[in-house]
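Good morning N.,

You mentioned wanting to compare the apo and holo forms, so I went ahead and generated the holo version with hypoxanthine. This is what I fed in:
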Amino acid sequence: MSRPTLGLIGGTGLNAFEERWETLDVDTPYGAPAAPLRVVENDSMRILFLPRHGDPHRFPPHAVNYRANLWALKQAGAEAILAVNAVGGIHPRLATGHFCVPNQLIDYTWGRDSTFFETDLDFVTHIDFSEPYDSALRQKLVEVLVSRSIAHSPSGTYGVTQGPRLETAAEIRRMEMDGCDIVGMTAMPEAGLARELNLPYVCLALVVNPAAGKAAGPISMADIEAVLSDGMDQVQSVLSAFVASL
Ligand code: HPA
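and this is what came out, ligand included:
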């Protein structure tokens, strides 16, 4: 029997899941994914790792070819997707360095290629997206965070902005009133495309800065990078435990 296959989409800062991998070039009807897939296998699992922004990091959030990324993972056999995202913290409980396993999102992006059901107008498809994240996978991820005593929030609403600029303080205030707990630029259309392909999808978000207006002064890229480099070590260990739990 073939092994279960997990697609792992790495965000900013997570560029190497393992040291040893084989690469798999995949082409799709939507063009090439951000990078060749890296295949990591053990006795019980196959993991397809894809750095969302390319390797080296070269596609900003609004220019990622999300359709090619998702299609390539599905075509190569992924049965579920774990996405890692760096985000800003809006809710006070989501301090820098905390993780969040969101259960909801609000899409503020525009102009991105956001569906596979674009041209076949004989077969108009509206996927259900009431719950954008897979609850069984979320539960497993939360169990790993709890078992390792890692500071996290087991739920939250991810507000997805267009970028690449960060938000204004007023935009964050509005998002807070909308109910957003974290803000990032890459959860959509990724999560919607995964649902269109029938791929259960879960997100591990790492808070790398207080959102605009939530701390004194401007948001510094140097501060974000410092948090990312510490946080990604934790991400690696969470991912290993998550994979072992599947
Ligand atoms: N806003 C949007 N995206 C982000 C942020 C932010 O503050 N931090 C990391 N990704």
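The mean pLDDT is 93.

Happy to go through it together on a call whenever suits you.

Best,
F.
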